[in-house]
C-alpha cells in the first residue's frame, strides 16, 4: 500500500521539508540567505503550487526541500508528488506544517497517497530498495490522514486485484478480514440460500457463474446508535451476460465491484475513527456470466420487495442486485443510506471519469455530500430523479423493466429504478462512479480509485461524530 515510504526510526539528521504558500513565496524568498536566493534564481524556481526545489547545505549536500502549495481542497495533491520525486533519504515536515492542523492533515494525506503502490503481482525490484522515507508526525492531524489514506488504499487494492483472485468468495473474505480487525460481525447468505431467504434478484444474476453469489452483511457499533447503512455493488466480473459486452468494454470489468470497494473503504474509516454510529454494510457479490444457468433477456425476475422486473438487458445487472440489497437496507430504517455503484456508462458520458453522479431523495443529504466534496476535492455532481422519466421503465409483461427503450438519460433511468427499492428511506443517496483512474497524476495512480468516500466520511463524522 504505502508503508514502504514511512521511516521506521527517526533519523538524527533528516532532510527538512518546508512548505510555503504560493502567495507567500516572494516574501519567503526575501528572508533566505544570499546563497539560497541565488540558487533559487539560477534554478528558475518560481514557487508554483505543487512544485519543489532542494536547497543545498554544507559541502553541497542539500538539507532542505521547499515545496509550494495553496491551502484549499487540492492541497494534498501539492504534496503527493514528493514520494516519487525525491531522491533516497529521510525527510521530515517542518513545524510550519505540523503545527497547522489543517495543512498537516492534507500534507500527510498527500504523502501517503503519493506513496501508494499496488505491487501484489510484481517481483521486488532491487533498484527501488533505496527510496525517500518520511517521518510521519505523531499528532492527531496525521492520524486522521492515515485513517483516510488506509480507507482509500483498501478500496484501490480491492479494485486492482484481478477477477481470478477477487470473486464473490474472495470479496467476502476481504470483508471478514476488515470485520475481524475492528470487531465487526460479518455474515453472508450464499448460493441457493439467497432464494430461500428471499433475495431472488441477487441469486438470479449470479447463478450463471460457477462462483456462488452471495449477500455480504457487516454490522458494527452500538445497536442504539444512529444507523448508517452502506450498500455497494459487488459485481466481481461483468461479461454483460447474454447481452455480451465487446472485448474492449470487458477489459476493465474487474472494477465492476468498485462500489463494494468504496463502502468497505468508507467502513474502515468509520470504524477506525470509532464514530458513535451503528454501521451496516451490505454487498451483493456476484459474477455476471454466460452459461446454461444464466438469466436471459426477456426473463421476468422476482425481487425481495415483491416487484417483478422484466429483463430488457442482462448487462443492466447492477441495478438488479442492488434492488434486493436496498430493500433489505430500508427495512431497518437507517438515518442515512448511501449506495455506491459503477452503474452506468451514461453517467461517464455526461460527467466524465472523475466526477461521480449523485442522486438523492433528500436535499440536506445531497447538499452535505456536494459541499464536502468540493471542500475536499472529492467532488460529485447532482443529477435529478426526474419524475417524468419514470414511465420509461414500464413493462407490458411485469411491474417494470430494468432498462428503458430510449438511449437517452441512462444514468437517471438507472437511479429511478433504484429509487423504487429505496422507497421509504429517510435520507438516501446513490453515487454512480467510475472507480478507476485511466492515467496517473500525483497521488492518483492509474488503476482503482476511491471516489466520494472522503466526502461521505466527513459528512458522517460531522453529523454523528463524538
TrEMBL record:
<dbReference type="GO" id="GO:0070006">
    <property type="term" value="F:metalloaminopeptidase activity"/>
</dbReference>
<keyword id="KW-0645">Protease</keyword>
<dbReference type="GO" id="GO:0005737">
    <property type="term" value="C:cytoplasm"/>
</dbReference>
<dbReference type="Pfam" id="PF00883">
    <property type="entry name" value="Peptidase_M17"/>
</dbReference>
<feature type="domain" description="Cytosol aminopeptidase">
    <location>
        <begin position="313"/>
        <end position="320"/>
    </location>
</feature>
<dbReference type="GO" id="GO:0030145">
    <property type="term" value="F:manganese ion binding"/>
</dbReference>
<dbReference type="InterPro" id="IPR011356">
    <property type="entry name" value="Leucine_aapep/pepB"/>
</dbReference>
<keyword id="KW-0031">Aminopeptidase</keyword>
<dbReference type="InterPro" id="IPR000819">
    <property type="entry name" value="Peptidase_M17_C"/>
</dbReference>
<dbReference type="InterPro" id="IPR048816">
    <property type="entry name" value="Peptidase_M17_N_1"/>
</dbReference>
<keyword id="KW-0464">Manganese</keyword>
<keyword id="KW-0378">Hydrolase</keyword>
<comment type="similarity">
    <text>Belongs to the peptidase M17 family.</text>
</comment>
<protein>
    <submittedName>
        <fullName>Cytochrome C oxidase subunit II</fullName>
    </submittedName>
</protein>
<dbReference type="InterPro" id="IPR043472">
    <property type="entry name" value="Macro_dom-like"/>
</dbReference>
<dbReference type="GO" id="GO:0006508">
    <property type="term" value="P:proteolysis"/>
</dbReference>
<dbReference type="Pfam" id="PF21337">
    <property type="entry name" value="Peptidase_M17_N_1"/>
</dbReference>
Amino acid at each position: 500500500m504505502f508503508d514502504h515510504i514511512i521511516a521506521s526510526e527517526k533519523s538524527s539528521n533528516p532532510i527538512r521539508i518546508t512548505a510555503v504558500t504560493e502567495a507567500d513565496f516572494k516574501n519567503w524568498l526575501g528572508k533566505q540567505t544570499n546563497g539560497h536566493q541565488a540558487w533559487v534564481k539560477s534554478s528558475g524556481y518560481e514557487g508554483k503550487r505543487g512544485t519543489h526545489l532542494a536547497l543545498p547545505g554544507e559541502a553541497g549536500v542539500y538539507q532542505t526541500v521547499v515545496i509550494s502549495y495553496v491551502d484549499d481542497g487540492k492541497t494534498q495533491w501539492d504534496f503527493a508528488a514528493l514520494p516519487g520525486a525525491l531522491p533516497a533519504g529521510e525527510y521530515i515536515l517542518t513545524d510550519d506544517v505540523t503545527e497547522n492542523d489543517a495543512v498537516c492533515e492534507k500534507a500527510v494525506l498527500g504523502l501517503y497517497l503519493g506513496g501508494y503502490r499496488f505491487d501484489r503481482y510484481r517481483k521486488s525490484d532491487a533498484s527501488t530498495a533505496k527510496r525517500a522515507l518520511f517521518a510521519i508526525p505523531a499528532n492527531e492531524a496525521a492520524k486522521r490522514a492515515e485513517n483516510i489514506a488506509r480507507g482509500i488504499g483498501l478500496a484501490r487494492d480491492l479494485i486492482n486485484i484481478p477477477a481470478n483472485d477477487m470473486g464473490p468468495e474472495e470479496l467476502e473474505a476481504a470483508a471478514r478480514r476488515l470485520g475481524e480487525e475492528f470487531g465487526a460481525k460479518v455474515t453472508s447468505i450464499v448460493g441457493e440460500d439467497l432464494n430461500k431467504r428471499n433475495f431472488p434478484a441477487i441469486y438470479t444474476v449470479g447463478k450463471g457463474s460457477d462462483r456462488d453469489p452471495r449477500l455480504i452483511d457487516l454490522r458494527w457499533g452500538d445497536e442504539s446508535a444512529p444507523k448508517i447503512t452502506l450498500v455497494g455493488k459487488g459485481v466481481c466480473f461483468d461479461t454483460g451476460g447474454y447481452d455480451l459486452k465487446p472485448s474492449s468494454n470487458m477489459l476493465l470489468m474487474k472494477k465492476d465491484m468498485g462500489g463494494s470497494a468504496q463502502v468497505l473503504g468508507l467502513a474502515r474509516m468509520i470504524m477506525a475513527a470509532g464514530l458513535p454510529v451503528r454501521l451496516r454494510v451490505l454487498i451483493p457479490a456476484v459474477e455476471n456470466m454466460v452459461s446454461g444457468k444464466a438469466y436471459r433477456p426477456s426473463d421476468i425476475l422476482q425481487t425481495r420487495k415483491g416487484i417483478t422486473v422484466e429483463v430488457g438487458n442482462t448487462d443492466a445487472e447492477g441495478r438488479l442486485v442492488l434492488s434486493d440489497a436496498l430493500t433489505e437496507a430500508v427495512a431497518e430504517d437507517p438515518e442515512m443510506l448511501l449506495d455506491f455503484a459503477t452503474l452506468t456508462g451514461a453517467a461517464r458520458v455526461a460527467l466524465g471519469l472523475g466526477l461521480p453522479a449523485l442522486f438523492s431523495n433528500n436535499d440536506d443529504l445531497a447538499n452535505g455530500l456536494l459541499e464536502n466534496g468540493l471542500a475536499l476535492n472529492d467532488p460529485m455532481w447532482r443529477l435529478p430523479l426526474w419524475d417524468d422519466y419514470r414511465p420509461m421503465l414500464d413493462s407490458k409483461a411485469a411491474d417494470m423493466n430494468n432498462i428503458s427503450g430510449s438511449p437517452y438519460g441512462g444514468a437517471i433511468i438507472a437511479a429511478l429504478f433504484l429509487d423504487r427499492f429505496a422507497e421509504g428511506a429517510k435520507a438516501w443517496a446513490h453515487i454512480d462512479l467510475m472507480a478507476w483512474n485511466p492515467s496517473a497524476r500525483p497521488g492518483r495512480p492509474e488503476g482503482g480509485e476511491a471516489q466520494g468516500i472522503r466526502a461521505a466520511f466527513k459528512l458522517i463524522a460531522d453529523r454523528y461524530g463524538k
